Amino acid sequence: LIAGSEPWWEPGTRTGYHAMTWGFVMGEIVRRATGKPISHVLRQEVAAPLGIADELFFGVPESELGRLARLEEAPDTAAMMAAMPADMPLLKATPPAVTPSAEYGNNPVVLTSDIPSGGTMSARAAARMYAALLGEVDGVRLVSDERLREITALATADVDQMVGFPMPRALGYNLGRPGADPQETLSAFGMPGMGGSAAYADTATGISFALTKNRFFPGPSTAVDRIGELVAKVATG
């Protein structure tokens, strides 16, 4: 479906958030480049060297499914989703069958599949992975200083065609601390996830941070806002 899609605009003229499609595209690129599913590459090149092979997955082994916390839908999720405009670009770009929800995230078929737009991990593992991007962690470093500067530099800051407002981004990462003015915190790179989890690292402070939660809420809420409050305390504490 993705390969056969027509571009929504001339490539290189605009940008738009690929909420779910990005994962399928990236997974296929990695498979063709390495000959291995991205779940194997993540385990061999990142998770195992960092000692988090049992906490960081693209495609959870069936034997590990019993260890996972189950996602729970927030009470007002259905009402919020129903209130979204039917012609919202982000909804058009993400087919209903793969739109994240608690039910989707708990589905064993989804959990065991190689879909890098929806990994399964502990907060400790995500923070440790980001720390290994910033510098050495127990003898392991994922990228060089030169590569770190390249992947965290501002690449685009135009109006995102999916969400409707400017989004400063690097190569695969959002820029700016969650809950803070992105323009004032461009040294931070990472990604908040639909449902309320988030992770980032900050090249200015050397801090890496991750928060995972099992109450799923796909939009602004007091719970999601608290991520910003936690991040601010970590950044200034």
Secondary structure layout:
Blueprint: H1 21-34, H2 38-47, E1 56-57, E2 72-73, H3 77-83, H4 89-93, H5 102-106, H6 108-111, E3 120-121, H7 123-134, H8 145-152, E4 174-175, E5 188-192, E6 198-202, E7 208-211, E8 215-216, H9 222-236
Parallel strand pairs: 2-8
Antiparallel strand pairs: 1-3, 4-5, 5-6, 6-7
The name CATH uses for the topology is Beta-lactamase
What gap, in angstroms, lies between the N and C termini? 47 Å
Read across the widest sheet, the strand sequence of neighbours is 4-5-6-7
Instruction: Let me know the largest β-sheet.
Output: 4 strands, antiparallel
Radius of gyration: 18 Å
Corresponding CATH superfamily:
DD-peptidase/beta-lactamase superfamily
| Proper CATH architecture | 3-Layer(aba) Sandwich
H and E string? HHEEHHHHEHHEEEEEH
Protein described:
This protein has 237 residues and is an alpha+beta fold. It has a single domain (21-236), classed as DD-peptidase/beta-lactamase superfamily (Beta-lactamase, 3-Layer(aba) Sandwich), CATH 3.40.710.10. 34% of the residues lie in helices and 10% in strands. It contains nine helices and eight strands.
